[in-house]
Amino acid sequence: MKQGLVSTLSYAVLLSFGAANLPLHAAMLPTERAAEQSALTLNDERAEVVDFLQREHVAKALAEQGVSSADAIERVATLSDEEVRELNGKIKNLPAGGDIVGVLFTVFIILLVTDILGLTKVFPFTRSVR
Fold first, then answer.
1. φ and ψ at 71, to 5 degrees?
2. CA-angle at 20, arms to 19 and 23, nearest 5°
3. Membrane spanning segments where (predicted)?
4. How confident is the model at residue 67 (pLDDT cuts 50, 70, 90)?
5. What's the pTM?
6. Which end of the chain has fewer CB atoms within 10 angstroms, the N or the C?
7. Mean of pLDDT values over 44-72
8. What is the pLDDT of residue 117?
């Protein structure tokens, strides 16, 4: 029984070594093709920034600051490649919906204090000072 297991494992190891020695092919990438791929990703990033600026809540926030959405989109078209990448990175790192945990914690603390002061009775585990 042990001999069968050893021979099976031996064949598996030999097979894996044989598969690792398969020929691989590599080729040089022409500069034009690399530039096209870079331009495509930059165009994608620029399109993501424009899509972000066209959202309703973003357009509303821009209007509150005195900037129209169309003006902002025109300005994105004039940004350098590095500026577009930086702006897109900042947009992707924005919290989705604000700081929800901070808001919930603040509401909890306010309700807790009002419960302790006897102004409300929200939590059953608190005792009023009154």
1. -65, -40
2. 90
3. 100-120
4. confident
5. 0.46
6. N
7. 82
8. 83
* Residue among 30, 45, 44, 130 nearest 86 (CA): 45
**Geometric angle at alpha carbon 129, from 124 and 130, rounded to 5°:** 105
H/E/C letters for each residue in 24-82?
A: CCCCCCCHHHHHHHHHHHHHHHHHHHHHHHCCHHHHHHHHHCCCCHHHHHHHHHHCCHH
Helix (H) or strand (E) holding 106: helix 100-116
Quote the pLDDT of residue 32: 72
The answer to whether 76 touches 50, Cβ cutoff 8 Å, is yes
For residue 9, the one-letter residue type is L
Render pLDDT for 84-121 as a digit per residue (tens, 0 to 9): 888 888 777 776 665 566 666 777 787 778 778 887 77
C-alpha dihedral, 30 to 36 to 38 to 39, nearest 10°: 160
Taking the domains of the chain in order of start, what are their residue ranges?
A: 31-94, 96-130
Q: Residue 41 pLDDT > 80, yes or no? A: no
CA 66 to chain centre: 28
CA distance 67 to 58: 11
